[in-house]
Design goal:
Largest sheet: 22 strands, antiparallel, barrel
Subcellular location: Cell outer membrane
Strand content: over 45%
CATH topology of the largest domain: Maltoporin, Chain A
CATH architecture of the largest domain: Beta Barrel
Radius of gyration: 40 Å
Mean pLDDT: 84
Membrane topology: Multi-pass membrane protein
Shape: elongated
Keywords: Cell outer membrane, Membrane, Transmembrane, Transmembrane beta strand, Transmembrane helix, Transport
Family: Belongs to the TonB-dependent receptor family.
Number of strands: 55
Main location: membrane
Low-confidence stretches: 1-13, 15-22, 24-44, 122-130, 288-293, 848-857
Helix content: 10-25%
CATH superfamily of the largest domain: TonB-dependent receptor, beta-barrel domain
């Protein structure tokens, strides 16, 4: 412009030049001043921010809003910086930025109205690393790479810790060289040294091999074992399979003696019979009158968080099981409150794992072989000698003597010709058992799936008895941010058959000199005709002896089946890193059916009732039964976990609702001419004096639970829980039951004095107390119940009559548990656990006797008290363990003691005792010579009552008894009965070893019981009181009184009077059982196997119940034999 101006006008005068210069300077000064003022005004704006645990992005947004500046940054630089806490009051933008970015690897630059966030220069970062800064990181599963929420992150030698967020992210103050420690339930603790604060640290955690030692699974919540005060024992799938291959229940029996199966010497190894289980003894009275809907002493079974039945647990595929935990004391089981008095068995199944498709296959094929070693029967010649000694072939009547002699000679001739029938072998088979299980799993970080299928075919030792189980499960798990949704659908079909060969005792009683078949090889219905004089008559009569095998030749069946559909759904919402909500819902539908058909030619119909008149047409019988069970269970739980410096706090709350409905119908039809007409519709009529029957039961519960745990510095521990439950089973005035527990613990190993020792790994003291309730009662026992008159009407109306009195005050039967425990582990080799407990079951539900004027004999009330007192002790020693070579050797042993005492009983139980005395006093009553259950205050429910015996009088051969006053007599009197023994052993124990070396695995488990007594029924029924017309125990010929002066244990064989209950047959029962032996070899150690795609391949052999040594010689398995199981196993993963 200046050039153009001068060219056009020429050079201006001097004053004009001076004026233009002054204007230039003024403009520069004005512009500079304006800009400076603008900057000062902006930077002088005041910032006010107060935020807690927010991310950096939130703080920057507020600075932008309050200052008017634009802020730009690389998203990757700030996205992971969270959990910041700031409190700015009236500060400048510069100060707000400086304080917000302190201890972060970030800096800022202000250009005009623009703030730029950038990474600090390298020299600044190095300088910053010399001081504390915020370390950003993420904790992930090493296998799935999924973030682990809720993990605890801390810095060694510093106070405080943080919890990872839903995606596994965390922020913590640290410096270069700091050691970050990460722990989470079920994973190996990790320690990582900080080398760079600028980047994000990733910590990969591996699942712990000793996961079950690290945690306690209660079915509702998972707790850290090192801060838990409850008494529990936990076992992994591997432990269960080492201890047995039959089912979960049998393995638990071999692992923990506190989990006891009461031996049933009658039913033996019957695959269709349920065992009688007790956990720390009996909490209630035996079910004498059918007042319980289930075994009153049965523990509560929890499968994947929901209540289930004993039958489903026995039928469960063992290869689906991840772990089993036994909850024994109040602190551990009180969360189940109203149903946990008998203990709780918590079963968790395997969770599918993400990753590539994985397939596992497990197979067991073997044989069940009957164990008949306890039977010592006479052979043909020995039996004839016993019969001669008993004088059954002698008669003062010459005609009768000729008949008896002829019969004896016929038997003798048969024996001499080689007849010596082994009747015990006739109904027995070596049952071929096979179990096949396959599992497929895989998925990604969001969706994981698992599919299981199992077939278990069990052939019992009695011919025709079997159990076939077919099951499948689909497990889907979906994860989306803070939500985990899980659904498990399980289908199971079980079909079983009872043996058509009848009771094994029928074959035990058959005489060996009788032929099994006729000359043509056919099994005849009548095996023999016995000639003998009836009681009180000199005349001989003949009676047929039916061949028990004949029924098996007919078209008879005794079968049952059930189909079970169960769907479990759970939604897990991690609301905050410390707050979790879980909702669960379970639906179960079970349909069952039973069919029993006995054709007209069955030996059941050989009595006089069916041999004349209309009874002839009633032969043949069909029993039909069917039922349904519908169970609905829903619960919602909230869990809050917070770690504040040395204070660890866990709070839980739960709300439960459940409904259990069952219906059953049954009828019996009779009159089937032949065995081909085996449909109910082809029968003649309903069984005489019967009609179709039905049952219905509905039980609904609602409960609220609150529980908490506090630990200070992992030294001092406190557990507490409170549950209140309302149930439809109890009286309207006492529907709510209240159950609680408190536990205290002290981790002495975390005290400095024990840390300095260096060899103490664990030393914990525990003490708990609390109340729980009992389960399994009939649905309507507190209500007044009516029954309609079905065979009569009045004015064309049906009447009804009262069959049960209402008791609106009937309340819960509660059990109070006190437990003191010690846990010790040293040198990472030796561990021991000891628990001493005392429990009282109060308010026992029992019958109260009413006067005849009331119209009812009894009604239900709460009266009675039982005490259980005992201890559990477990010991394990690891001789060596090398994880690199997988070589290890360890020994284990455990012992349990329990004693129960009746503290209070009702008058109805005293009346029951009197009725038992009447039965025992009548020799004509069946079973009168066997011990009867009696209930006496101050005595055990397992006490054996009998009259004290002084033995057999050498002069007369008669038994001598001792009366209550100390005098002696030959006359037995029920009033002289006293406690002569206790069937409950003083000690139950397990012991064994686990060896793994060079690919070989050897695991052996033994059971031992000591100190209990048994009433030897074999000596009574098969020796002294033996029916000489049937086969007998070999001891019938030995130690018998024969003449005056003989010192003998048994009375004269010719004395066939019924022996009463006597202490003479009470014997100490100590028993050693080789419970399980497992031999395996790891074939995947070979490179060739690996190349075939196998990640794991094992082959092995296993045996269960290989032998039993006992101090008592008694016949075991009288109705169904016991068995030994031998199996070959194959386990493959690929």
């Amino acid at each position: 412009m200046y050039k153009n101006f001068t060219n056009y006008l020429g050079r201006p005068p001097g004053y004009i030049l001076k004026f233009l210069f002054i204007m230039r300077v003024a403009i520069v000064i004005i512009l500079t001043t304006i800009l400076q003022l603008k900057a000062n005004v902006t930077l002088a704006q005041r910032i006010n921010i107060n935020e807690k645990n927010v991310d950096l992005t939130t703080i920057l947004k507020q600075i932008r809003t309050q200052s008017g500046y634009d802020i730009i940054y690389n998203k990757d630089l700030v996205s992971g910086i969270k959990s910041l806490t700031v409190n700015f009051k009236n500060v400048t933008v510069d100060e707000a930025l400086t304080r917000s970015l302190s201890n972060l690897p970030l800096s800022y630059v202000i250009e005009d109205k623009l703030i730029v966030i950038k990474r600090k220069a390298a020299d600044q970062i190095i300088e910053m690393k010399q001081a504390d800064s915020v370390l950003a990181g993420k904790v992930v599963d090493a296998k799935t790479k999924q973030g682990i929420p809720g993990a605890t992150v801390s810095v060694r030698n510093r106070k405080g810790a943080v919890i990872t967020e839903t995606n596994g992210n965390f922020l913590i103050n640290a410096r270069v060289g700091s050691v970050v420690m990460v722990s989470y339930i079920g994973y190996k603790p990790m320690q990582v040294t900080v080398t760079d604060l600028a980047g994000r640290m990733t910590v990969s955690m591996e699942e712990s091999i000793n996961e079950m030692k690290d945690v306690v699974v209660t079915g509702m919540f998972t707790r850290k074992a090192n801060t838990y005060t409850g008494s529990t024992t936990s076992f992994k799938q591997e432990d269960l399979l080492k201890a047995g291959s039959q089912n979960v229940v049998q393995s638990l029996r071999n692992l923990d003696p506190a989990f006891a199966i009461v031996e049933n010497i009658s039913m033996g190894s019957n695959p269709n019979a349920l065992p009688d289980i007790q956990l720390r003894g009996q909490s209630g009275l035996p079910d004498l009158n059918g007042e319980y809907s289930a075994n009153p002493n049965l523990p509560l079974f929890i499968l994947d968080g929901f209540e289930t039945t004993l039958q489903k647990v026995i039928d469960l595929d063992m290869y689906r099981v991840s772990s089993v935990t036994l909850l024994k004391d109040a602190a551990s089981k009180a969360i189940y409150g109203s149903k946990a008095a008998n203990g709780v068995v918590v079963i968790e199944t395997l969770r599918p794992q993400a990753g590539q498709l994985q397939v596992s296959y497990n197979s067991q094929i073997g044989w069940e072989v009957a164990d008949l070693s306890s039977y010592k029967l006479t052979n043909g010649m020995q039996k004839l000698q016993a019969e001669l000694a008993a004088g059954i072939y002698q008669s003062t009547n010459p005609a009768n003597q000729y008949t008896l002699a002829t019969e004896y000679n016929n038997y003798l001739r048969a024996v001499e010709s080689g007849v010596n029938t082994d009747w015990l072998s006739k109904p027995i088979q070596n049952g071929l058992n096979q179990r096949h299980s396959i599992r497929v799993e895989g998925g990604d970080q969001q969706l994981v799936y698992g599919v299981n299928a199992m077939y278990n075919g069990i052939k019992g030792t009695m011919k025709g008895s079997d159990r076939n189980i077919l099951s499948g499960a689909i497990d889907l798990r979906y994860r989306k941010k803070a939500f985990n949704i899980n659904n498990v659908l399980t289908l199971q079909s079980t079909k079983s058959n009872n043996s058509p060969w009848g009771s094994f005792s029928d074959y035990v009683s058959m005489n060996p000199y009788l032929a099994y078949t006729d000359a043509s090889g056919r099994i005849q219905k009548i095996a023999n005709t016995v000639v003998k004089p009836p009681a009180g008559s000199p005349n001989l009569t003949s009676s047929p002896v039916y061949n028990p095998a004949y029924n098996a030749t007919l078209s008879t069946f005794d079968r049952s089946n059930y189909t079970d559909i169960t769907n479990n759904t759970s939604i897990d919402w991690l609301i905050l890193p410390s707050l979790r909500a879980v909702g669960r819902f379970s639906f179960t539908k079970q349909i069952s059916e039973t069919d029993i058909f006995l054709p007209a030619d069955h030996t059941t119909f050989t009595t006089t009732e069916f041999t004349s008149g209309a009874g002839i047409f009633r032969k043949g019988r069909y029993t039909k039964g069917n039922g349904t069970n519908d169970n609905l269970i829903g619960n919602l739980t909230l869990s809050y976990t917070k770690l504040i410096n040395k204070h660890a706090i866990t709070l839980n709350a739960a709300y439960d609702m459940s409904s259990f409905e069952s219906m059953g119908n049954s009828y019996i039809v009779e009159g089937f001419p032949n065995d081909r007409l085996d449909l109910p519709s082809l029968g003649l009529q309903y069984m005489l004096n019967t009609r179709p029957a039905g049952t219905e039961s509905t039980v609904r519960d609602m409960s609220v639970l609150a529980s908490g745990n506090y630990a200070y510095d992992e030294k001092y521990l406190l557990d507490a829980s409170y549950r209140t439950t309302q149930s439809s089973q109890f009286g309207s005035n006492n529907r709510w039951g209240k159950f609680w527990s408190v536990g205290l613990g002290w981790n002495l190993h975390n005290e400095n004095i024990f840390k300095e020792l260096g060899f103490v790994d664990q030393f914990r003291l525990r003490a708990t107390t609390g109340f729980t309730g009992s389960q399994g009662f009939n649905s309507y026992m507190s209500l007044g119940t009516l029954r309609y008159y079905l065979d009569d009407t009045y004015s064309n109306e049906n009447g009804a009559y009262l069959i049960g009195l209402a008791n609106p005050d009937l309340k819960w039967q509660r059990k109070q548990d006190h437990n003191f425990g010690v846990d010790v582990a040293v040198l990472q080799r030796l561990s021991a656990n000891f628990d001493y407990y005392v429990s009282y079951t109060d308010g026992l539900l029992t019958d109260i006797t009413l006067p005849p004027s009331a119209g009812f004999a009894t009604y239900k009330a709460n009266l009675g008290k039982v005490e259980n007192r005992g201890f559990d002790f477990r010991l394990r020693y690891s001789v060596f363990q090398n994880s690199a070579t997988r070589n290890s050797l360890s020994f284990f042993a455990s012992v349990s003691h329990n004693k129960n005492t009746l503290k209070e009983i009702s008058n109805a139980l005293q009346s029951y005792n009197n009725r038992q005395d009447v039965i025992s006093s009548n020799p004509a009553t069946a079973g009168s010579n066997l011990p009867r259950v009696r209930f006496v205050e101050g005595q055990s429910m397992d006490a054996i009552y009998a009259v004290p015996s002084l033995g057999i009088d050498p002069a007369t051969g008669r038994e001598v008894y001792q009366k209550l006053d100390g005098s002696v007599t030959y006359d037995w009197n029920a009033a002289d009965q006293v406690v002569v023994g206790n069937s409950l052993p003083d000690f139950n124990s397990n012991f064994g070893f686990n060896l793994q070396y060079a690919g070989f695995l050897v695991n052996a488990t033994f059971r031992y019981t000591f100190g209990g007594q048994i009433y030897n029924t074999t000596l009574v029924n098969r020796v002294e009181n033996a029916d000489i017309y049937q086969n007998v125990d070999l001891r019938v010929l030995s130690d018998r009184w024969q003449k005056p002066g003989d010192i003998s244990f048994f009375k004269n064989i010719a004395d066939r009077t019924n022996t009463r209950l006597t202490s003479r047959f009470v014997e100490d029962n100590n028993q050693l059982t080789f419970a399980s032996l497992q031999l395996q070899y790891e074939l995947d150690r070979f490179t060739a196997i690996k190349k075939l795609g196998f990640s794991r391949l094992r082959a092995g052999f296993q045996t269960n119940e290989a032998f039993v040594f006992s101090t008592v010689k008694v016949e075991r398995g009288t109705t169904y034999p016991f068995a030994r199981l031998f199996q070959f196993t194959l386990n493959a993963n690929f």
